[in-house]
Amino acid sequence: MTAPLSHRIQSGLATALSRVPSTAAPLAPPPPGSGLEAVPGDFGTPVVGRSLEFASDMLGFGRQQYERYGPVSWTGAFGRRMVSVLGPDALGQVLVNKDKYFGNADGWGFFIGPFFRRGVMLLDFEEHRTHRRILQEAFTRDRLAEYLEVMNPRIRRSLDDWTTGDGIRIYDRIKQMTLDIGTEVFVGAELGPQADRVNRAFVDTVHAGVAVVRAPVPGGSWKRGLDGRKVLEDYFAAQIPVKRAGEGRDMFSVLCRARSDEGETFSDDDIVNHMIFLLMAAHDTSTITLSMMSYLLAKNPEWQEKLREESLALDSDDLTGAELDSLVSLDLAMRETLRMYAPVGQLARITVRDAELQGFHIPAGTLMSLGIHASQRMEPWWNRPDEFDPDRFAPERAEDKSHRFAWMPFGGGVHKCIGLHFGGMEVKAIMHAMLRRFRWSVPADYVMPVGLTTGPTPADHLPLRLERL
Ligand code: HEM
Predict the structure, then answer these.
(1) How many angstroms does the Cα of residue 132 sit away from the middle of ligand 1?
(2) Distance, CA 416 to ligand 1 centroid (Å)?
(3) What stretches of 136-267 show up as alpha helix (H) in DSSP?
(4) What domains are defined for the chain?
(5) pLDDT for the residue numbered 212
(6) pTM attached to this predicted model
(7) Which residues, other chains included, contact 60 with Cβ-Cβ below 8 Å and sequence gap of 6+?
(8) Residue 116 Cα to ligand 1 middle (Å)
(9) What is the pLDDT of residue 10?
(10) 170-181 and 195-208 are packed helices; what angle lies between their axes, rounded to 10 degrees?
(11) Per-residue pLDDT for 7 more than 70?
């Protein structure tokens, strides 16, 4: 069980203390004559900076920073100076990365490098392009249709086992189901006797990325993550020869045989690294989206009924991708959920050389945090941004078109989520099947406490009243 966030933050402060820069001076000034401005900001509380606010209240931190300083500012966090990027103009410039100022490898590497090294999101520039080209083979339209065929019966089996009643922690149920789907669709295995060990290793590896104590202390989540990674490496490496030789349709088999148009293929190490990263990228994001959507539909029962009517009208659990896409209200509600609770709430970057961002100078080697979650809750791009209002995405209102980067739960530019269609398909297939079987609710005065993993999560695991229809 992961320690409560407040506890992890407290112990993390001790680590931050030992890593704090010797000075809380601002970022280096712009070179004379450059015409650029110095980034505004402040270190925050001496020594620890704003680590606490950043780690415990992503939304509040982002809003405060934007109000005080605007779209580009600096602050102290995780023992160093970090630039916070907010609002669609600034985010768009970093994501498009026209001048190749911003790198992922050491940006994301700072947070999750030891656990997800050489995953495609942690590669840069030419090398990233090559790997992404090969990886694309696992995400074609035909492949997605095959994954959905495997996924549908798995969803039915999981939901058939769900018990009903009060206080059902829906986050745990959903997490287990997406883990089971990942095992079948990605790994292509009924794991058998190894199941518990591999699943545990996977969960430990994912959680370690947000550990606040960033050192291998015995019993700590960082250490468990490193151990988990080793279990996964050995597990995948041992199976590569069989997967390469076979004709499996799971993602692991597909990666073993993937060949780009230019004839490039993955080495054994590449396959292990990509598998570990892909499992993580798919698992937490779908779990968060489904949990937050369950919450929003419990708080807005008229929308839950609307979606249910639409799903019941289709008269089948097992839909094709095209049928899932025909569920218009489900699509609107999913997009609104992704806006309100971006599952990857912050993206990481680092300046690989001196950079210009929105007229500001950012020195080489500066860690940057891209505030997706907070930016998707800001006026003027969104009306009443804290309200659940799926119709804002309907063509006649189209608030998401207020700016090219107003809605960006999947990022943008060359690192834009390669699994966005897969993710949308999985979320819709599960929600469709849930709506057809169950009705759920929360007490009228219930407000979900928001915790943090890769993005906002239900800190209390979202206890619901769940009834079978
Ligand atoms: C609702 C679900 C999902 C959300 C909100 C989401 C979000 C994101 C975001 C924001 C990024 C960009 C990271 C950056 O620029 O630094 C990203 C990248 C990525 N995602 Fe997703 N993701 C989702 C589902 C998935 C799924 C299901 C998969 C795999 C099957 C996946 C695989 C990836 C990969 C491989 C990357 C890195 C791409 C690259 O660097 O070229 N994601 N995702």
Answers:
(1) 12
(2) 7
(3) 141-160, 170-181, 195-208, 221-245, 251-257
(4) 5-468 (1.10.630.10)
(5) 54
(6) 0.93
(7) 53
(8) 13
(9) 39
(10) 110
(11) no
